[in-house]
What we know:
The complex is a heterodimer. Chain A contains 14 helices and 2 strands; from the N terminus they run H-H-H-H-H-E-H-H-H-H-E-H-H-H-H-H. By secondary structure, chain A is mainly α. In chain B, 75% of the residues lie in helices and 3% in strands. Chain B has 11 helices and 2 strands, in the order H-H-H-H-E-E-H-H-H-H-H-H-H. In chain B, helix 1 packs across helix 10 (226-246). The interface between A and B is large, with 49 and 48 residues.
Amino acid sequence: MTRPRLTLIVCALALVVYPFIMTSTFGQRVGVLVLLAALSGTAWNIVGGYAEQVSIGHAVFYGIGAYVPLLFYTQTKGNPVLMIPFAMALAALVALCIGIPTFRLRGHYFSMATLALGELFLLGVTITPALGGASGLSGPVEQNPWELSMRSPLPYYYVLLVALALMIGLVAWLERNRVGYYLRAIQSSERAARSLGVPVYRYKLIALMISAACTALAGSFYALFVGFVNPDSVFGLLVSVQMVIVATLGGAGTLYGPLLGAVILVPTQEWANATFGGGGTGLSYVVYGAVIMVLTRFEPGGLLGLWNRLRFRAAASA
Amino acid sequence: MLLGAVYALISVGLTLIWGMMNVLNFAHGEFVTLGMFTAFLAFSFWHTGPLVFIPLAAIVLFVIGQVVYYALIRDVMRGPMFAQVLATFGLLLFIRYMLFWIFSPNYRTLPSTLLGGTAHIDGLYVSYPKLIAALVAIALTAAVYYLLVRTQIGSQMLAVAEDREAARLMGIDPDRVQALAWGISAACAGVAGALLATFYYISPEVGGTFVLFAFVAVTLGGFGSVPGAMLAGPIIGVVQVATGYYTSPQFAEIAVFTLFILVLWLRPQGLLGRSIGGT
Lengths: 318, 279
């Protein structure tokens, strides 16, 4: 058995047994939040990391994923879980509508357009009374596993773990597929890729649609876990930015980068909140900002980049 | 409309960095906030008026801009694009929540007696602080433009923007020139903040609202184009005020962002920008 595969199995095992080691509700809650961040970071990574189309508006898809099931529930009292595939499809459709005009823009221009679209969605949802306005929507309150409404974080943890495994599997498959090769080509040089006959525009759209559907899935899980959404918590700029940070911290454009980023970032955040007091002082964000600056200053390739470099150096000196 | 002149001043700093280095500075709004707090502190400790605290904000922010360039941006610029996005966003969080921590999120204002009164011009009533802010902003924006097109430092900046290596061969130190650009950019934002402080509330988060409009102004005017920013700032101001007046303030923001997306879509090079090399 090769060493990378062994590392992988050890990590997977650690994720599976984690709730048995951290038996406190707080610990398990943090576990769920880590997996949620890893899910959305992995989804963002498909288009943001592999193709380097830095979207700062992915909260649009996250928000759609979060709002659709809860809207269905509040309107019809039907099972919100049934609406998750619908939310994913809707997010993919919206991604198509967003992608067609914005992918004509490159680099920072694309980022700016997605940023503005994100803000527009945020404002739009906030002023729409049918979506609960600024106060948001609430989910099922009865304890019903079929509606993914449970008191303990433990079941959520395993549902999310399975979803994450599936999503990483999907990305791994894409990586080895034509889509993955084309996206990498776009990342290294869009012009060169086009001159070699890569249908750049079409593949960027495909990547964005897949990414959007996956982001919506993460949003749906978030909504059902927390049981409550409002415009700021799912459509806010920080939601989009967290995906970028999670993916970049671990290593953008790598398979496990977002997971690694989430494992490090979310507990740091929770720890900072618990230690310095989340309410009011905002000191945890100061730490957060400092960490990001130090990392991008010294290792723009993310922690996986750092790891690879250290290993390379060790191999060279051995 | 008068606010538009201040938008223009904020945008000039943003567009300078963008045009020269192709770096998108998310923390630019935080520079505006820092300018406001400089004014606030100068007033609360020494009871100085705008004549003192506006230049002070320029100096403080100029230094901060240089520090940011040498400590962070110079190295991040070599990295991939998302590293730049992240770095300035990290800076944003750092500055904003540092202020949050030190000053608490409470709103503060400078006493209105500092620059009170209303001017009566041609049937229009305009408060003095706004009028003065607009005039100073216009003057400074023009000064930056003059600096860029007419002075040696300006041509050095344009040379570095054109080709860093060639500029180095011509005996220009690109680092020094780019640091200077960051200093000027931050100073513009700082002065804009100090001007705003004379009539606007001060809080750690206030810069965020201005910078989004500045982004729109930069896009509208054309990235890297100082005259474009001078033109676009007032346009944004008019759109915002007009929509706010005829409908509700919430729609003002929506109108500005819709305008933004339309411009990006229809004319990504902006009103006065150069073509960005077709898609």
